[in-house]
Structures
1.
Amino acid sequence: MLTANPAVLGWSGSPSAFAAGQTAARAALKQLGKRRAQCAIVFGSSWFDQAQLLEGVRKVFTSAVLAGGSTAGEITPEGPTSHSCVVLALAENGMMASVGAGTNLEDDPRTAGYEAAQQAVHGLASKARSGMLLFGDGLLTGYAEALWGIQEVLGTSSLVTGGLMGDDLRFHQTYQYAQDRSLSRAIVGLLFGGTCKIGVGVEHGFEPISKPRQITRSRANILYELDGQPASSVYEEYFGQEAMEAMRQEGLTRRLIAYPLGIQMEAPGRFLLRAIRAFSEDGGLVCTGEMPEGGWVQLMIGSKGLALEAASSAARQAIQSLRTVHFVLVLDSVVRRLLLGREAAEEIARIRQIVGPSVPLAGCYTYGEQAPLGTPYPYGRSSVQTGACLVIAVGQP
Amino acid sequence: MKISIRTFIILFVSALGLGILAFEFDWLTKLLVVATLLGGIGYLALKFDYQQQRVQELNHLRAGYEQLDQQAKLIVRTDLELHRTQEELDHKLASLFALHELGRQLRVNLQPEEIYGQLNAQLISGFGFSRALVGVCRAPEELRWQSLVGIEEPAAEQVRRHLLDRGALRELLSRPDPKTIRLGAAAPADQPLLELLSARTVVVAGVSPQAGPQGLLVLIREGAGAAEGRGDEELIAVLATQLAIAVENSALYEEAWGARRELEQKVHERTQELASANEQLIRLNKSKSDFVSAVSHELRTPLAAIKGYASLLRSGQFGELAKPQAERLAKIEKHTDLLTQLINNLLDIARIESGRVTMESRPIEAEELMATVVEMIKPQVDAKRIALKTRLDGVRQLVGDPTHLPRVFMNLLSNAVKYTPEGGSIAVHLERAGGQVIASVQDSGCGISPEELPKLFQEFYRSGNPINEQVRGTGLGLALAKRIVEAHHGRITVTSHVGKGTTFTFTLPASPVEQAPA
């Protein structure tokens, strides 16, 4: 007997925040028919008034568990978009979800992770846990510690994956949604349980181009020195003094974003990507994740062809262990949108082609992608990077 | 130079050998020691040479490595340049596509408000901007936002007030080109706009068709780079012009549409008036028919009495009549008959028109019908020595009212006899055509002028030929014939040539039996 897919999708480009949230939710609700929504994942443009956006969604899904965040562009099955709201709703079908939020991520990431996981676990009716989706603040780091906090509650073998939310490349303020609240500087965890299984695929396709250099001075996510030289002067060597000066003056870090740094990992040929987000006042480079002193880094370069192949590969990895795919979330790095330009739509089309055109697909462009990279070094099983295409498929094993 | 353990052992053995040489040993031992020393010295020389080669190779590799890194720098710079060019190209393509898309959407005629509403987030992104405000302003003191992209209403309201309060709107609308306000290069007066919008670059352009200002575009980009915004002003100028043309077209369309609506309204009103007049005419016609019917009924009774008394007088029951008296009574009878015929015709017309008479639909033998009609008309035909021919062409039956249908033939034949000179000819012809029978009555009479033909079937119309001046008639015969034919769902027409004759043709239903295949 054919059963209806528990996941439904709606999106809206209405200019008003409330209307966009409400219209997108209504579009999803229409497809649910008489079924009741137990969970809604919301991706909203950072240009909207976030409270009103959530109010619009809540007006339609009055009792569903609600999680998500602001973006650097939204993803619908038709391709990338902006100034819109995307709502993916899940009907009750044996799959269960609960949400938890940890604030004060900046000062105490471990406690923030612990709180988020604790709340989510308490809210989940099922004892069987499939994994946790994270929605973090894309302007903060410290996710390795937050992960330890989460693992204190869920254990080290639980899947933790997700994205760091964006604000359309303004790097001013990002939002994380938990139920009716739109938070900043927080981490939100959406815990899935019951009969579902989560498949994850993550690839970036960037290749090293420079010689390896050692991080000789850094603090959290600010990189000061490479091989004993100022980090910005090393960048200057590659990009040219003129280009760097122009970028520094005009705040055009978006060009630098497309050339991330790759931290060498234990596994040969594997790199953890970090993008340059800004120039710090004390001459350092503000990166999108921690830069550990003593680590070896290389400048990475990407091509459209490699990026598209990586996305296809991530999609294949995500669905390979699933018999039925209910829905797919694409948390794609904003770096890739800049790299691909007009061909960003092609990336989504390729993922759709692999997961199947009838599978609901939603997502957004992120400032960081948290996913298991298959090596414990240096941050444990699940690590944050910037520049990857993260495909999360939820379905039945 | 770092000394390896092996080299140290060789040196130690060499020193030991030299020591042995210095003492008293046999020549064989001394030879062995010398050979060992020579071997050690040779090994050391080779080792030194090998290490020199390794150092050189390492230096070569280092130089190659640095060279590769230099090439990497070149590749990165080239890639950066390519990336920038690609971005610019993408931007241009996206702008052109957005312009094309907007043009396509504006091809449909829209209200001015709807035109501004077409500038949605997708188009704004296509033009390379992240946010936008699009407003309607028909005067420099009036501004109403029509489309907000990425800006919430409270912020938009603040911008509106700023533009109106400072008179900045007037200045912006009076500019022929768009204005770019960039962080770090903005005039003090423009700085608040950047702050209100939390923007680094703002491009403002007025939409001003020939009729005067109509709208305002405020487009926002997050970057403040001059290179990034290259070509912005030209692009926005084209966009503003396109919108201005659309607004103008909309006004023209509205004007044309208004005129058309006015015309349609007038046509509708006139049609209503005509319909109303028509209804009035129908009502009047019915009143006329009712009046004629009533009056005719009232006239028939005294006429019957007049006719009766005149007949009685003529019969001589009240005494012998003098010749002049008999002649006068004969005239009374004749005129009474004529008047009775006139009244009967009028009554019949009125009844048919009012629908009070229903035509029967019975089979009528065509031959019998023709014989009856010919017999009735024969005295008049013979009196004028007219040759009357009938041809039935296999038509055996007609379908119609046996009382009224012969009157059509009689009226047409009476007319034909009346206008055919002595020795002329009349032909009655029946033929079948599909489900109909076409009947015609043709004479070789004086004919009717083309001007009179359309009026021929009007009641009381009599053509102005000399015969009519001599022969009396009611002017109702043809009108009645037309009513009867039409009541049989037929049609009557006439063709005539002056001096040659006239042909009346009418259609009647044929018998369904005859239509069936043999």
2.
Amino acid sequence: MISYVSHMLVLPYVVGDVVLFVEIRWHGRGGQGVWTVSNLLAVAASYEDKYVQSFPAFGPERSGAPVLAFTRISDEPIEIHSMVYEPDAVVVLDCTLLGSRAIVEGLKKNGTIVTNYEDEPSKVYGVIGVEKGEYRIYTCPASRLALEVLKRPITNTAMLGSLLKALPIVKLESVFKAIEKRFPGPIAEKNIELVKRAYNETQEVK
Amino acid sequence: MSELRGWRELPLGGIAYRLSTDYKTGDWRALKPVVDTEKCTKCMLCWIFCPDMAVIWDGEKIVINYDYCKGCGICARECPVKAIEMVPEHEVK
Amino acid sequence: MAQTIPHVPPEKQLLLNVNGDEAVAYAVKQSLVDVVSAYPITPQTIIVEKFSEFVANGEVHTEFVAVESEHSAMSVCVGAAAAGARAFTATSSQGLALMWEILYIASALRLPIVLAVVNRALSAPINIHCDHNDAYGMRDSGWIQLFVENVQEAYDTTIQAFKIAEDENVLLPVAVNLDGFFLSHTLENIRILPDNVVHEFLGGHRKLAKTRVDYLDGEVPFALNPACPLSIGPLDLYDYYFEHKMHQVEAMKHVLQVVRKVNSEWYELTGRKYGDGVLEPYEVEDADVVVTVLGSTAGTVRSVVKKLRREGKKVGMVKIRMFRPFPHKDIAELLKGVKAVGVMDRGISFGSYGQSYLEIATALYSSKEKPLLVNYIYGLGGRDASPELIENFFKELIGIAEKGYVEEEIRFIGVRG
């Protein structure tokens, strides 16, 4: 019997004949590398023999406008080709989007929210507009880290590191490999450093 | 024209199975170009302009290949010395 | 001809993370294509963008002809293919509409061009997202039309398309349809063959068919060649036009068999197959209710069938991989004994039904026990076909099968009232 499980049952995520099937939604703004980071996660998972899908919320991109991307990762071939309606996790690249209802829309009960957020962690509930205990929320000072490491406020790879702390669906090494394949040497190095730092500085909001 | 062939006997893709020279397009003609070799200066403008390559230089003079000349009259129009006259077919002796 | 190329196990196939457009570009890159001519249009653009990269990097020896319109792109392909080249182009929506008159020329001249159609809704209003009305618009143009479900199939089918098109019993152009955005812009991990294996599968460069004309001795290669000149595309009046159309009717009859053969050769080579290449049934044998579908939605429907089967419901699906020529007999055979059939169409012929409904109704007309038939028009302009939407009309169909009659033959689903 095959059962489709979300992350709540999957840490560690492969138990017996349980099949991994995870859906992640990325929130950001046009130009922040939202689709790129979704692709990076998918590519990393493919290195671990997972089946993957990564796609943007289809449409012409407009720089600065809120955009979405989706990643599906599974142990079995992914047949479904519709949008993601009930993600297991959402990742928010841009803290100015946190107040939007779109962040928690359809998110599974007890689902994971990973945020680029630097303020007092307990305040994050109010910013997102959810009650404590509804979701598992993680914060990461991604904008600050990106400025320190990349000297530019590009938070996509930082938030990938942060997601992996919250939801260890792929190994960090696989992500590094995907980054090395996607970016030229020095840029890859910096992004790998950023992923590591973001991973280490990500905290669950208690 | 020989008898019409069935589709199984035709070559691929609607290509012509006979040469285009088999079709004597001269019978489309209503007006016939007649060359006055006395007037002709052999400038060859008619040879240049003929769209059907029906004007032929036989080594001494201009002749018209009436098998393929459709009678468009471009040669007569372009001739600088008016050595070509377009004559209705039925008036040609 | 037996397949003699040894099987390539999955671990010997290269893992590639690409979207549907890139997968098509890779397939074309490996298919020894002589000429590519195209004009960019969303969501197809990535195909020619990627392919022109291959050209610029010297990775292929293809002549890439940049043109000012799709009409010219197809015209270049016609000229190239008439000269004996293997030619490819790609387009979407309005671009396909602009190609329309040349499509008929390509098929009637029996030129084995391959065209990737990245399905997109037609204007107006302007829309860049997926539906199948662009493909349905070329339905009667004499092209073979294949629809793919996922990125892997887009890669596989593009290579197969050259082999199908160039088969000496076929010699017809092939359109490979992939859903705009749902496939074109979705990254999936696929397995691709080594270049040399693809070359071998296709038998190297395009081989010319032979034909016979009165004025040349024996059979000559069917291509423009000053050494044995042919007039390609001359005038044909009521004396011969009808006979030449019979050639196209006849060629289409061979397509089913060739598509099946290529599908099984591909299976032996790669371990991947798509039903028999023409239709891909799933859980149909004992099903009371069956849904037919084309394109990427097939995967979503299959996942819903699995869910409903787990709940004990006798449901199934048929993915229609080939829309032209349409496999009327095969589908009638598959749907024997089914109580209710839902035909999904991501398109509509205004004033009539969805285009695949018309085919399936025709197919079933001479069946003794006809299933109840409902046409579900869905997903126009990229409206998403969610699992929930599909599950709902499966349940509606189960109700129809129980009641024994259809109230509304055509239903518009996922649209606001």
